[in-house]
Structure formats: C-alpha cells, structure tokens
Write a structure and sequence with these properties.
The chain has 318 residues and is α+β, with helices and mostly antiparallel strands. Helix content is 27%, strand content 19%. Strands 2-5-7-6-11-12-10-9-8 form a nine-stranded antiparallel beta sheet, with helices on both faces. A two-stranded parallel sheet has the order 1-13. Bound molecules: zinc ion (2 copies).
Length: 318
Amino acid sequence: MLVSPHRTKRPWLGQKETLPPDERPEFDPKCYLCPGNLRANGERNPAYADTYVFENDFAALLPALDGAEPLQQGLLRSERAAGECRVLCFSPRHDLTLGNMDLPSIRRVIDMWGDQIVEVGSRMKWVQIFENKGSAMGASNPHPHGQVWACDYLPSLVAREAACQKAYLESHDQPMLLDLVTQEILAETRIVALTEHWVLLVPFWAIWPFEYLLVPRRHVQRLPDLTGAERDDLAAMLRTGIQAYDKLFETSFPYSMGWHGAPTDGDSHPHWQLHAHFYPPLLRSATVRKFMVGFELLAEAQRDVTPEGAAVRLRSLV
Ligand SMILES: [Zn+2]
Ligand SMILES: [Zn+2]
C-alpha cells in the first residue's frame, strides 16, 4: 500500500467544521424503531425495555431459494443464495448511541449479538452482525440499532480471511490474529487501548484513516464463546473506542462496524480468531471525509495519515 509523505503533510485548505450538536428526543413518535411505534409493514413494536430483534421488513436476503434462476452463460455465472435479515435495536432510547449507553446496556447488546449467532447460525453458514452508524454510512435512522444479514454460503471477503488464517495456522501452528496481537502489543505504536481481555488497534494495513481492529487476547472462534468477564470487558472497550471516535472531531462519529468469527457450519475452525472491524469514513473533521476515488479506485488504496499517527491521536482520547 502506498503511504505518501507529501500527501500526509499536504496543507489542508478545505473546510474544517463541527456539526451542530446531535439533539434527539428520548422518544420519537415517527421512528419505526422506537417502542410501541408502527412499522411500514403495519406491525407494531412492543414496549421493549432493553434490546429488541425483528425480521427486517425490507430484507435483502430471503429464506426461500426463489427469485432469479441460476445462470451459466459463457463467462457469466450466478447462483441462488438464501438468507435472513434482522434488525437489532440496541436500546429503547432514541437519543443514545452504542458508545454512550451504560455498561450493563452495552453488555446486553453483546449478549444479543451472541444469541443471534447461535440462533440464526443454526440455519445459516454465515451470520454477519454489523452496525451502520450515521447518515454518512447510509444509516436511514439515528435510533441505536444494528443488523444481521445471514446467508447459506461464505461471502467472498470472509472466504479470503478464512483461507489466509487457515494457511497461517498450517505453517505457524498458531492463529494468525493472535500472533498479530502479540506483535502489536510489543510494538505499542498502533495500539489504541489494551485491557485484560481485549486489544483495540489501528491495523497496519488500514485503508480508512481511523480504522479499528478489535480482537480478544485469548483464542476465541465465535462471539457466543466469550466468557462473562470477556463480555463485560468488551462492553467497556466498545464504549472507550467509540467515545474516542466521538471526541476526535467533536461529532457523533459515523462508522460501519461488524463482527467476523468462525462460520456457523457446524465445524470447528481452529484457524479463526474472532474480531471486529470498524470502518469510519471521516478524515479531517466532522464533515471532511475520505473518498476512495481516482488512484484508489483504479490502482490501490492510499493512506492520508499513517496508522501510527491515527493511533497516537485516538490513544490520547481514551
Ligand atoms: Zn427511535
Ligand atoms: Zn475480518
């Protein structure tokens, strides 16, 4: 990957501004995720008190294998895929975010994520848990919520991670991401926060300026395998990491985050190490974002700040 010294030092002549404070009510009668409100399909949300899960009213993946016929036409091929999509409300409070909820509430979100992996994973090979936060990342509703998209096959990015981890375990007899964690803790330069059970770092290969990789320090294949102590520690780490983001540009920091754990196909995958990715789009302020354009679209990603520089700034806000 290219890291341009000129680009990292280039004077910035664009806008530098913060957004007006995010003032949302605790309850929004028009929000389709708030307790007791009516959704587009005519169903009414219960008066839920902590977390709430429902099937996505506009699911991109459907359980039945219907829809377009598989295609095999010269160079072109497509296959059918079945799946499920769910919405995960993190809190009944419309005005909160995952980063400013109290620790017991964040812990309940972690437990919900684990339960979804177990339940949906009993039917699907891959259960992708993620959160798109902020309109910059396409979130249509500011109510704190995430999603599950699950499918009966291994998606391409995940299949690539699986192959790399498998090859590494075979040649080194140790899960790749655990070796990475050991190396990064020794180096210290890309670490943002370190707790008894978790490490939060800016990955060496990060292409988004303030990307995070969040990894447990013990070998853990999947979210449901986390112990109670690891879950409590994760709640604190999530809050620390997200609040550092919010402080960086004094805004409710947008991001897309999600969990990668071993596939839920019934097999053991000793090469897999559970981890979360955070991909935030902002570069220089609450409104100046990184665009993946030009050389980056056509040749390769280029960093505007080094991962070490990003880690120093984020670490100072922890
Ligand atoms: Zn709401
Ligand atoms: Zn991953």
